[in-house]
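Good morning,

Both structures are done.
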Amino acid sequence: MTEPFPGAVLDLLDAAGDRVVFEHLGRKVTGAALLADVRRITRGLRRHGVRPGDGVALLLGVSPEAFAAVVAAHTVGARVVGVRPGLTERQRAHLLTDVAHRVTDRPDGGADTPAPGSVLRLADLLSAADDGVRPRVTARPGDVARLIHTSGSTGLPKACAQTYAAMTAAWALRPDAWPPAVRELAARLDRFLVFGTLASQVMLEYGLLTLAAGGTLVTADPPAFPDAFVRLRATASVITVARLNRLVAAQREAPVDLGSLRALMVSGSPLGPARLREAAEVLGPVVFHGYGQTETGMISMATPADEPGSLGVPPVELEVRDAEGRPVPPGTDGELYVRTPSQSSGYWREPERTAEVFTPDGWVRTRDLGHLDGAGRLWLTGRTRDVVIVNANVYYTGPVERLLGTHPAVAEAYVTAVPDDSTGEAVHAFVVPAAGRTPALAELRALVSERLGEACAPARLTLIDEVPLTPAGKPDKRRLVQGS
């Protein structure tokens, strides 16, 4: 029987031995040293009474010791809750519901995050004696391994419950299960730049992939791009669309030597074909465009060789279905349903929301629209809930945003609904102008009216310097509306 997660991580660190696996603030940490930290923290957690199934919140950065704490918390079989920066007090309190212990590396012990339960300082846990014996993994396959929270852009974050069985089945630590796109990416992860917090689902996933590929994790916090790539000789990192756009602009204005850079994994929101082509022109063939959700993990990934706009061939079960839930033929848009080995089992203690998204036969409704072409490649076209209702007719914002993005005076476009006395709702376009250009509402209305119809044409236009982002790095349309 396969040992539950994180058994494979312990094996990787043991096999690494004297090889450097982590670089942080000038320190080089070997696999053996990191495994010793895992042993000490595991003993410390057990000494404080942490048992399988207990809720443990991690208020940690991206140091080697923080990584060891994540592995140790899973070794004892805890239900791990990551608390990322940028949350409101109300959101933090929501995340810490049902948590018995908090592990923190903050100097104040996480005093700004009041909650019941014990506070365990990482430094104190590291003071436990190291017996040199491989920690016994007491995680139980059916227990919830971690709660991965959504961005909270619609209110309080939803907690996606992922079991230890699901984490064990994930592809990151199993080279024999790597899809072709992941295998190509793994070959470029010699020095993977991590930042922010390992509470990030994406950051931890690619960090584990880096270790499995024989690479090294290097830290930069805050991540000043492109300086961090140059200073740390990083070969890869995760990047949001907004950060990628800023990196491209910085390279155009004042180029630096990015010869070490081999892979940028774009996540969080779609990357338009025009922006992707520009990034390839400036940075070279380094952009991997991933598509996934908090509920499912990775669904598909495009490599630099894929056609801009495509998300590659999904390596998981995926069906495109119509409004009645019936599969549709290739080339036909519909809602995407997926099944992945490591998907969540539902939303923590929210059965009604779970029933809306997770089907009894194991499929997850992504609430995204798209289609598969004749070659099996995935193309996204919108979201089922991202709509404007004009005269009682529903219009998806995705096609409007993409069409606006083709106008030569538009660099980026974001569409929301705005109340309208005549039609109920109308389209409000928020546009980042292209360099040296100023788009006019009349021109944009004419473009959309011709291609998509009058109802989809913007009734209002707001020019913005850049789109605000949620703490998860996604475009925050709520703040766009509030600021207009």
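Second structure follows.
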Amino acid sequence: MMKVTGINSTYLIEEISPQHFIDEHYFMYVVKGVVVLYDGNQYQELRSGQSCIARKNRLGRYYKTKEDGELEKVILSLDTSFLKQFYDRHKTTVTKFESTETCIPVNKSELLDDYIRSLQRVYNRGQIRAPFSNVKREELLLILLEQQPELAGLFFDFGIPAKINLEEFMVRNYPFNVSIERFAFLTGRSISAFKRDFRQIFNETPSRWLVLKRLQEAYFLIDQKGMKPSDIYLDLGFETLSHFSFAFKKQFGLTPTALSGKKTKTSME
């Protein structure tokens, strides 16, 4: 059976990773099970036979669910170096890619399904065997561009992120656990310009604002939504439950577990 398949051992995100930055374009195809992708704005569900492109220079995470005890997916990187080599050889026509989605749906087709099945013959221990690596990626790219020519505008745009609305971006993406330098890059700013603009907008340093924003959301989710601390700390950008609990108590004077217990007791009275 085909399990997780990756080119050069690269994956979108391992489990629910503390690193939420999508560093290259990735193709994901679900063979069995369910994969839900979240980009800070919307959730996108992929079931058996469905696939998408996870877009470079975006923030996102995914969650996996087995069906009938099974989960199989294919994830292949379409990195910048590979895409530049492909473009130099094929000189593909490029038009502006209009979609703003982080996870771009890929059209279902028999050709794509046949391609996925063909990977089983060159699959070995979690990777495509070295002699076939670029050949199979090129085959995939040719299929994608034949089915959806507009994807050329996505794959062959080698520019860096343009300057965008910082306040809107941070309010949407504060739960993602990435560095200040990464936030600066994604908003089209140098680190010094990012810090300057951030203080002008929020009247606070980025690090302090991020922690406070995440803790305030945690308090709301526990106190008003009845959620468990262990179920939310990763989604709010904390790497460990102990770090989350320490920061929460420092800010609010009680641990998240104590707040959760207090909320449960109040509900029972």
